Amino acid sequence: MKPLFILKNRSDIGAGTRGSDMGIDALEIAAINAKNDFFNKHPFEDIKTHNETVYDKVKNTTAKRINFVLEQCRRVKKATQKALEADTFPLILSGDHSSALGSLAGIKAAYPEKTLGAIWIDAHADLHTPLSTPSGNVHGMPLAAALGHDNRAYQINKVTEDTLADWEQMKSLGTVTPVLQPEHLIYFGVRDTEIEEDAIRKEKKIRNYPVHEIRQRGLGYCVEEALQQLEAVDLLYLTFDVDALDCDLISRGTGTPVSIGFDPREIIQLIQGFQASGKLTALEICEINPLLDEKGNRMAEAAFEVVHGVLG
Length: 312
What we know:
Elements: E1 4-9, H1 23-33, H2 38-41, E2 44-47, H3 66-85, E3 89-94, H4 100-110, E4 116-121, H5 142-147, H6 161-171, E5 185-188, H7 195-204, E6 207-209, H8 211-217, H9 219-229, E7 235-241, H10 264-275, E8 280-286, H11 298-311
Parallel strand pairs: 1-2, 1-3, 3-8, 4-5, 4-7, 5-6, 7-8
Helix pairs in contact: 1-11, 3-4, 3-6, 8-9, 9-10, 10-11
């Protein structure tokens, strides 16, 4: 495996609830409490954020702070591209999930001629757009932007020209547009969606492996099947939103907790399965919110179990 390089992206302006900007610190505290020096072993970069904009009045309800999220995605793109061009393996630690678009775009910028696949371990599909979103939170939109999709068929919002202009820039963030093809995207654990997202998933035939199917058919079999679907891709990006974990079993220390999810051991096995393919190029972990953790620092501890299990 290539040398590890940690990107610390503390941005949480794409989320509906503040606090995931402290997720990276919570993760490091979990390592310290486990007497593990993981975060002292590897070089890192702190990516500048626009978190101070949470004090500004939200003027745009269909894509809150999208202009600042766009800028954050550009920063993450640049940092990811730089890490890959230095021949390292980026471990991207993010606050909220909106800047995953930047991670995907950064991989494509580093390898514009290669085909990129994405494994999205998450309770949510993140396929909303400014036209379809019921919340206006941009952390629910990164995949729609990566796929270059507007979902006009399910438009429920009247969107301003400025917002549409920012959205177009998000969709064209990649060196190659769209950044991702739907047949090269596979979900694991998605179980909390809206009809607007379900419509895109159905139209684009995007595969989801729900928790119950994985446990019924076998985790290894599902990973093998997913790799067969992604046989044509050259590179794999894997993102793990911690709300994929079972909030009742683990913790509610994330912005949008959902029941009946994975346990950390299953997440480790999933990631290891894709590591074994030799195509895994970058790993992202996001949405740890210690302010919402009713069990101390349990969500960050579970996330560090995953980090150490696959990279330790």
